[in-house]
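Protein 1 of 2
SEQ + STRUCT:
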Amino acid sequence: MGQRRSSDLVRRLPILLILAVAAAGALLLRDRLSFEALAQHREALLSFRDAHYGLAVAGFVATYVAVVTFSLPGGLICTLTGGFLFGLFPGVFYNVAGASAGAVLLFLAARAGFGARFAERIAAQGGAAARLQAALRESEWSVLFLMRLVPVVPFFVANLLPAFLNVPLHRFAISTVLGIVPGALVYTSVGTGLGEVLARGEAPDLGVIFTPPVLLPLLGLAALSALPIVVRLWRKGW
């Protein structure tokens, strides 16, 4: 019994550490990862990028990975900074790499700590929750892409829910990388003009993703992702 408890603690330690850092970060880093902080340090960041490009890329991606893994405030700031420092291309690749790697690390920690056993308990208990779990598994690809494409789903929620349902790693990773590309393109593009906006003492228009030219294509992609679910329900006579 003692050995089993020790094994459970070791397995849950990563996600417990992540939760602790996330709680501390929400209190301590709220003002440090902000537009004001970026405006204050933009010249230093640009100078460091020009002098040490490789280190700037590595440091940026590592920071983005940490922000996503520990669910720290500032994910959007990181995406904008990627465009600000590195342009649309290759900035969008650095943004997608950092966000995807952080999401995978959080997913793995959550699944190892709670996800697998949580999913097993739902299946064993039966009832409505088990039926919902089974329905989701029938359409995992569609559901995973929908969570990434629909802007109303918080990023950290889209990382944790699949872990609790014990989604296979390859499905989570592929849907994450491909599913965040459209949003990353939009906000990286906004970041490319961030220098002028910050120089004027203004904040960028983050509502751009909800404008028709951007939102409608995203909803179109979401509709394509949902199509297999609709077809499956239609065949079942729902």
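Protein 2 of 2
SEQ + STRUCT:
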Amino acid sequence: MMDTEHDGGQRAATGLLAGRRIVVTGGSRGLGEHVVRLLLSEGARVATCARKPEPLEALRRSLDSSAGLFVRSLDVTVPELLERFVEDAVSALGGLDGVVACAGGARGRGITEASAEDWAATWQMNVGHVARLIASSTPYLREAGGGSIVVVASVSGWKPGPQAQYGSAKAAQIHMVASLARELAPCGIRVNAVSPGSMLIRGKRWDRMRREDPPAFDRFRTEFPGGELVRPEEVADVIAFLLSDQSRAVTGINLPVDRGQNAPTPEGY
């Protein structure tokens, strides 16, 4: 387990999130990395975790020495590790003002092929991890006088597509957000979901399709009225907005960031 605090100097108190202390799960690559970099650029201090230590270390090395970043490698589905990370992150950051549940994933294929273990693992990675993250963060947010929680759901949580274990877990996240927004409102804590559409991330599925099978990629682009997939920077901008005071009257919503996408996969449903 890697555990590193990287804070070589006092960060300037400027930007949309100046002085905020924010925990992000799954922040080493893809959308999570874009979120971490944006929050730091907006003046926040950030703690993030991911399963593999190497991408976290690469992220840390790529940042200016004054970036306020705390990192730890862990599996968010392992009991107690996530809770301990939140506790230590709060200690390193000096408190907590915001949370982004970005870690997620899926296991298994179609309904006749996916095992009970595939369903359980997909559920724990998405629903279980988010529930435990929010439960362990709430006392610290309450202590700070309130805060903002953003759950990264998916277009697959409300537009049907394969595989069902992933879509149902994402739908559960969206419902959890609506419920917890009401439960935590008296504490001054806002809870919202962001549902990205299919994102064009370097090295990931759609980027590989674009390079390896251009005709298939062009067909998939027709699921987007404007003909362009979502970029992770666009989703990160929305997450930063929901963490900021500019969205102080917004809670309990599921905000699609999908460019009006129709089917969430090339399968057409």
